[in-house]
């Protein structure tokens, strides 16, 4: 089975395109492209960025990017990388929920107290003195 990097390298060489030209046009470092072609995926680059680079590189070479990305994910899973740990999931907004409750409660208090003072007749507020 041909790896993703070998496939990229052979496709690029068949189209007689220089790696430097690809690097300049895609604005991806030539070292990163070399690493992708040599199947040496650096640890300093997140998997999400590598997938983006592979997608751009595949589009540039007019290759099927979806199948290449799937093959890359399979290949990386065999290399003991755990994609679930590297692709972060959004944090649950626990703090926002309690903040929302507090603001709602304060708003209800303010609105109800303003209605109370607005709709009480003014003569009820002043004490009556017996004379």
From TrEMBL:
<keyword id="KW-1133">Transmembrane helix</keyword>
<dbReference type="Pfam" id="PF13413">
    <property type="entry name" value="HTH_25"/>
</dbReference>
<keyword id="KW-0472">Membrane</keyword>
<dbReference type="GO" id="GO:0003677">
    <property type="term" value="F:DNA binding"/>
</dbReference>
<keyword id="KW-0812">Transmembrane</keyword>
<feature type="transmembrane region" description="Helical">
    <location>
        <begin position="98"/>
        <end position="119"/>
    </location>
</feature>
<dbReference type="InterPro" id="IPR010982">
    <property type="entry name" value="Lambda_DNA-bd_dom_sf"/>
</dbReference>
<dbReference type="InterPro" id="IPR050400">
    <property type="entry name" value="Bact_Cytoskel_RodZ"/>
</dbReference>
<protein>
    <recommendedName>
        <fullName>HTH cro/C1-type domain-containing protein</fullName>
    </recommendedName>
</protein>
């Amino acid at each position: 089975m041909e790896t993703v990097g070998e496939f990229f390298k052979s496709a690029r060489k068949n189209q007689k395109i220089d790696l430097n030209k690809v690097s300049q046009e895609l604005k991806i470092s030539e070292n990163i492209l070399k690493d992708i072609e040599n199947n040496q995926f650096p640890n300093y680059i997140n998997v999400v960025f590598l997938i983006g680079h592979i997608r751009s590189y595949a589009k540039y070479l007019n290759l099927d990017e979806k199948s290449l990305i799937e093959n890359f994910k399979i290949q990386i899973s065999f290399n003991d990388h755990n994609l679930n740990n590297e692709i972060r999931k959004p944090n649950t907004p626990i703090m926002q929920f309690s903040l929302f409750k507090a603001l709602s409660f304060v708003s209800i208090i303010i609105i109800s107290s303003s209605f109370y003072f607005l709709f009480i007749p003014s003569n009820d507020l002043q004490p009556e003195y017996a004379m």
